[in-house]
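Case study.
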Amino acid sequence: MSFLNQNILTWIVLSPFIAALLLIITPPNRGALIRWIALLGAGLTLPLSILVAILYNRQQGGFQFQRDVPWINSLGIQYHVGVDGISVVLVLLTAIIITAGVFASWRVQNRTKEFLALLLFLVSGVFGVFVSLDLFFFFLFYEIAVLPMYLLIGIWGTGRKEYSAMKLTLYLLFGSAFILVGILSLYFVSPQHTFDLLTLQRSGRFSYAFQRIIFLAFYIGFGILAGIWPLHTWSPDGHASAPTAVSMLHAGVLMKLGAYGILRVGVGLLPGGAHTWAFLMGAIATINILYGAFSAMGQTDFKYVVAYSSVSHMGVVMLGIASLNPVGVNGAVMQMFSHGIMTGLFFAVVGLVYEKSHTRDILKMGGFAKRMPGVAVAMTIGGLASFGLPATSGFIAEFMVFWGMWHTFPVLAALSVIGIVLTAVYVLRILQKIFLGPFTEQYHDLADAQKTEWVAITALAALLILVGVMPSPLVNLIRLGLHGFHLNI
Amino acid sequence: MNGASHIASSLSAILPILILMGTACVALMGDVFIWKRQRALTGIVALIGSVWALVVNLQQILGYGSSEPFSGSLVYDSLSQTTSLVLLIATVLSVLLAITYLRNRGLELGEYHVLLLFSASGAMLMGAANDLIMLFIGIEVLSVALYVLAGIARTEERSEEAAIKYFLLGAFASGFLLYGIALVYGATGTTNLQQINHLFSAKASITPILVAGIGLLIVGLGFKAALVPFHQWTPDVYEGAPTSVTAFMAAAAKVGAFAAFLRIMNAFMPVQPAWITAIQVLAILTMVFGNLLAVVQDNVKRMLAYSSIAHAGYVLVAVASTGMIYRHAVLYLSQGDRAAMFYLLAYVFMTVGAFGVLVLLSRSGKDYQTMNDLKGLARTHPFAAYTMMFFMLSLGGIPPTMGFLGKWLIFNAAISAHQVTLAIVMALASVVGIYYYLRVVWMMCFQEPEGAPATEHPVNDWAARWSVIVSLAGTLMFGVLPALLSPIMTGLYH
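After joint prediction, the assembly is written out as follows.
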């Protein structure tokens, strides 16, 4: 049991990585074998992370399943992993999305092997960030998670893919330059000269002036990945150009890395800095919500609508973090989970619709519900969760965020609630234009989702409702993770 | 210590250099008198000699000894031994590249390998110099051989142009260096670096003549290390010289120059205020302009030339972050020195590897040089394309490669030495770097191949292939497990 306890997180990180290595040596013409290896590598993380969520000791709380191996002693770098309530939820989310993502890319024909290998490398990095308790490894995994995106979009994308891929990469690496400077400053200012997150959190008493500057570096660095306005412009382009599984993973999980970084490193280690900049964060988050929603309303490309809705929803996450009180932050993590599942579902639907109709222009579509009823139902559930209808996961998340924000900055809370109305407008608009109305005969060979695609979209849609009806297991788990943070009560 | 035993111990300290020079002489004589036209044999002899020197060098490092052979004109400590190690690795990899390249391009000349070995021994001498005169001799041995090597493709005009440019500017730089040495001698009364250090440790007085001397030394070495604004020769020479020479030049000349930088700056550490600003300004200029100019290049060799300038800037950040002095007659290296040496080793693997891929592809009819040549390489030459991609990622500083860890160590050193501005400029400049490295990846992976596939029969490219594989293995292995280097780098901790 103790063996399992110590190594289960390492296995979650390694399982996609090993599968990716196996894929590299598999001959490219063995299509079926390649898909099954990828599914196994990605799918194995799902039972493992469910196991972590079940075995996580609720009485004890704190960081569990820790493993601590010295790596470069002279620099104070160690391989230290562990999860608290927040990371358990995010690891679970990642496992769900990558499994669904492999299902959704079951029919990628062009260089399947390389595609799936890169996807698995990427997700390995994402898992790594969520479980790392050493800032060096945190940064290392962060970079590993960001870079495969360049090739995934550049080779398998559509539209202006080269432009989007380069823009995305440069924006994100520009952000990581700030993160790097921030991490090294923490290392040198801390009395122990360590990268260990727990040690830094326990004993790193950083001066107020230091916290103020370095928090800002982390906010900008991670914020670019979280899509904060006005540094979000890489995100709609990137999402729109990326192939389905990559968009799912990117909007569903990768953007959460940014928010998670701000929460874990920024708020966790530099609470003073966080309190100084809380209003700024809240104001930018409000702009994100409104600006993203307005932009989504104006788009005619289905994928851009979903991409801008991600910008808007990440604003809700950032709003929750900016509230700096337990309910708001809890809501932020819930929103990360909820939005991850929801946006995964959206992009899967966009992929299906595009694959079958060969268009993404919503003005040219109509009446698709007649030919693809299953997809239409899934999209509707996702849409309802998107504007926070009760009994969907979006409701509980947004409710907690706005409730938390109301106690900190009521004006911002009031302004950002308008976002819900705007969300309803654009969600209903796409539902109506695409799935309702008269059917165009041009699309007579449309078909509903098939086999593996069914698995992906049904599971995601069901989860949205399940979490909406029964949020307490997740909410309680997240609450256990909030003890380490210095939040307003 | 009596004379004979001093000479014996001195000779054993410089054994790796002696082996290299001896091999060069054997190869030269053999090429002329014994095996005459069988030029491949010269390459093999050079390879055996440099591997032998590498093994002896490793033994010396693991012996953790330090000595000052030849009455203190040379010093054998961890810095010079590590420099030698890096240089010998570069030499072995370059000899392997040359064996393939010379045959493929029809340039099989015996003197190539001879000059290469002499040049490498000159660079090793620079790393071991404890006296400014010794340093100058090292630079000249390194440079004169390189001037000839740059022009070794006698039938190509570009190669001749490169050689003459390199020679003229190099001679000019030597002049600066020599004048700087003269002024430092005038200010201190000695050319021995250790004595200079002791002199200033006792009483640090900054005189105008000293500042001028140090300034000229920096200019002279700046030419050799290709720092902005003394870099103008680099792109032309790198482009014109045969690719295998460029690989060696980029690696060895730079390592030698930086070893000399570290030596001199450590000696002048007590008067740091006199030179630190100059180094900072040079580092910023070099990083910014190296990266920006690399962006607009269409020739891969020129791009790599500008990228090597940018990397020189990164190493200079480490030089600016040194902060240790002689203690008990032994040089203690600070984090800056360690970061610089680690980065130089990473740089050797990455750069020689990247040029190695170009060598691997080159045929008698076609020299792979431009971005267009690389189009669609992932389809036509998957091995070359994917290894090239890896070197590009490492040069860009992406984990899990040595390039990433090297940058991390330099950041680490810079922030610990309170050079925060340099660290930030370096971080931002690296982002620009990602753009042009990824452009190569883009050309190889996203573009369709141009023109008909090469129909030339496959050539015997085992040597270059091994060079690339070793570089790849080094970049990856030490990037993931840097602890493997610790027996070698421990000398640098103390």
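Observations recorded in class. The two ends of chain A are 37 Å apart (CA to CA). The longest helix of chain A spans residues 326-357. We will return to this complex in the next lecture.
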